Amino acid sequence: MTVTVSPIALFNVEQGISVDAELWDAITEKQLADWEAEWNMELLLALQRLNRAGVERKHWPQSRHWNWRKKTECLQKMLAYPCFSIMCDGMTQGMMIVDTPSKRCRIECQKGKNLVYIEYIENAPWNRKELLFDPPRYRGIGSILIFAAIMLSKEEGFKGRIGLHSLPQANNFYANSCGMTDLGSDPNYQGLHYFEMTEQQAVAFITKGGQL
Amino acid sequence: MTPVKKTMTLNLTDAEMRVLEELCIKKDLNKTTILRQALRLYQLVEARLEKGDKLLFEEELTKEKTEVMML
Fold it and tell me: B3 exposed, middle or buried (CB, 10 Å; 0-12, 13-18, 19+)?
């Protein structure tokens, strides 16, 4: 398996400094081991904190059931589903799986055109404020993964068009931080909001966020 | 983070080239992209068929399903 590693930077919240990190165009055994041994443990502790803090179960992160090993095993070696991960300090900080051939745009001005659809995207538990990590360890993981999806979309000839169904906790991030269009609740996808990014929105996102 | 790509020459009939060019116009994509997309879909469909799944098309209004036979 050939892995392309690109240098990136994350923001260490506690120290208030930018730190070197890597974007991998793969999810390998290393990332899956981190997920199994580190993410899961931290997630369980975070759920305990939420429970003890009286946070209702419906507000717990819905991604808590995601099994990255199963997802990756099903899709590994499939050209249709490129995978990405972010590494920093020897640890996996985020993972993403996208679908390149089978989804189409819904926004009227680009309806029916190809796009990169983000199937799964997740940040390591210790980087998530909603899991009561205060302060979260690193910031920038979600934006860099979205950036990677946009770059892939450009490479594929899709001009930066991307789409995804968002878990409720992330709606604000996709609408406001990423500048994607919220097409509302999708009854065919567990009522999750569907977000899409146009070519122009992709340019705006890249201009705002810098480059790899 | 573009991976290294290899170049190949592809021989197509007039009819095949016409279809490829029509798809390029319709999809607003270049020939390479269309063929790469086709390869991705083909690999995906083959993998699912090997698992014993079926490839079906569903008529939107009547919900009538037609199985696509892959050779």
Answer: exposed
Every domain of chain B and the residues it spans: 14-67
Q: What amino acid is encoded at B16 in this protein?
A: E
A11 strand-pairing partners: A18, A139
ipTM for the assembly? 0.80
Residues of B with CB under 8 A from a CB of A: 1-3, 27-30, 32-33, 36-37, 39-41, 43-44, 47
| pLDDT one-digit tens code per residue, A63-87 | 888 999 999 988 878 999 999 999 9
CA-based nearest distance B43→chain A, Å: 7
Residue ranges per domain, chain A?
5-209
Cα of A78 to nearest chain B Cα, Å? 7
Query: A-chain residues within 8 Å CB-CB of B43?
Result: 78-80
The answer to whether domain A5-209 has CATH 3.40.630.30 is yes
Q: Measured between beta carbons, which residues in chain B are less than 8 angstroms from residue A149?
A: none
Question: For the segment A20-32, what is each residue's pLDDT rounded down to a tens digit?
Answer: 999 999 999 999 9
Distance CA A212, CA A7 (A): 7
pLDDT (tens digit per residue) in A162-202: 999 999 889 999 999 999 999 999 999 999 999 999 999 99
